[in-house]
Amino acid sequence: MKLQIVLEPSDEGGYTVYVPSLPGCISEGDTVDEAMENIREAIDLYLEPVEDDWIAKEGILVKELAL
Q: What angle do CA 18, 23, 66 make, to 5 degrees?
């Protein structure tokens, strides 16, 4: 999976970084490398399934799909 990442210089120094295709997925870092590391972690958390988000009914199959 490839995602576009936007890095914007922050007024306080460093960078604010976000993923336009993942609303609310935002992070920051003092350097480009740090910001990229931090947004990777934010993306992982954003995409992590949360089992409490749904209630499975009888007969429903749940599978994982690696991208």
A: 90
